[in-house]
Design a protein that fits this description.
Elements lengths: L8 E6 L12 E6 L8 E10 L25 E11 L9 E7 L3 E5 L7 E2 L16 H13 L7 E4 L7 H10 L3 E6 L2 H9 L5 E4 L5 H8 L4 E6 L3 H8 L2 E9 L20 H4 L3 E4 L9 H13 L7 E5 L4 H4 L11 E5 L5
Helix pairs in contact: 1-2, 1-7
């Protein structure tokens, strides 16, 4: 692909810090120029944008676990792109890579960031799966279940937001390890889906059922391991239904909307003491060196048909801002991705 200095570069720019829920009009579409490369930079033409709830916290003044996105800057995301120019000898034009990029046609990516800039080889599955089952969601689910919660055969595991990109895969991985899995989701259709497609033995509809009462019926002896994606009242309820020496993994707090780094804390936290619970967080950055081996294991399970992959795919660069709010308003199951372009 031949580029010139006047090659247009569409960008979705943050025009203001969102107040409350993020909205499409918090972003402006502008046409900029190609970024200049410095040593170590890799310029890619974007192919796919991935969506994660944590993008919302990057829009706050604090930014959470990453630097905040400033007004006037393009929105950051995980994505897939094709290298078109490089100041890093390990990345050559034409190669397909995955990592942190931004909502623009051409973005600079680097290999020395918090996550590896992965080369994506030809494979017998859709390229976009590298953002889902082989991306942040799948890898977080894998490490959360196997290392964080140390799930073993015979455990009873509860997973909230069980239709999400992370939750749905955590359900399946826990089931593969021999656990009894109970998923929590909103509405009868989603509860049916997690039983039929995500390997759950039972489902709790938090919109129409009393979660605590259902847990008491399903797990009278207590929950061995809880994979928490929502925080808030749900986490507080689970504290009351954990088995002695149970394990809780804090992966997210989607119920809080990520509009601030301060979220509702649990009032039942003394159960940590009285039931000798273990509560641990997870952030994929800490597993950077282990990602290739984890992706290989996930690939084997997918190839063997033991993991169901669900993707919520949309088309068109212009849709980028309107999809982000759906992370908090009940999107369809699976990983949310936006297809922007095809490889050259």
């Amino acid at each position: 692909m031949t580029l010139s200095p006047d090659t247009p570069n569409r960008q979705w720019i943050l025009n203001r810090r969102p107040q409350g829920d993020v909205r499409p009009d918090d972003f402006d579409l502008v046409v900029g120029t190609l970024p200049e490369l410095t040593d170590g930079d890799v310029l890619v033409r974007t192919l796919f944008f991935g969506y994660d709830a944590s993008q919302r916290i990057w829009l706050t003044d604090d930014g959470g676990y990453m630097d905040p996105i400033m007004p006037g800057e393009p929105m950051r995301c995980g994505g897939i792109g094709q290298v078109v120019a490089s100041q890093n000898p390990a990345y050559q034009p034409g190669q397909i890579v995955e990592g942190f990029m931004a909502w623009q046609d051409y973005a600079v990516m680097r290999a020395d960031g918090p996550m590896p800039l992965r080369h994506l080889p030809d494979a017998p599955y859709p390229l976009s799966w590298n953002l889902g089952v082989f991306g942040v969601g799948g890898l977080t689910a894998y490490f959360g279940v196997t290392d964080g919660l140390k799930v073993k055969a015979g455990d009873t595991v509860v997973i909230s937001a069980a239709t999400g990109a992370t939750g749905s895969l955590a359900c399946q991985i826990a089931k593969l390890l021999g656990a009894r899995v109970i998923g929590i989701a909103g509405g009868p259709d989603k509860c049916r889906w997690i039983v039929e497609h995500a390997g759950c033995d039972a489902a709790i509809d938090y919109q129409n059922e009393d979660v605590g009462a259902r847990l008491a019926e399903l797990v009278p002896g207590g929950v061995d391991a809880y994979f928490d994606n929502v925080g808030g009242d749900m986490l507080d309820t689970l504290f009351l239904h954990m088995a002695p020496k149970g394990r809780i993994l804090i992966c997210g707090a989607m119920s809080q909307g990520y509009t601030d780094v301060k979220v509702q804390g649990p009032t039942n936290y003394m159960r940590i003491c009285t039931h000798q619970l273990t509560v641990q967080g997870i952030l994929l950055f800490f597993y950077a060196d282990e990602i290739p081996a984890a992706a290989m294991q996930l690939g084997q399970w997918v190839q063997e048909g033991r993991i169901h992959v669900e993707e919520n795919r949309h088309e068109g660069f212009e849709k980028a801002p309107e999809l982000l709010p759906t992370m908090f308003t009940g999107k369809a199951p699976g990983k949310l991705v936006l297809h922007v372009a095809d490889p050259a």
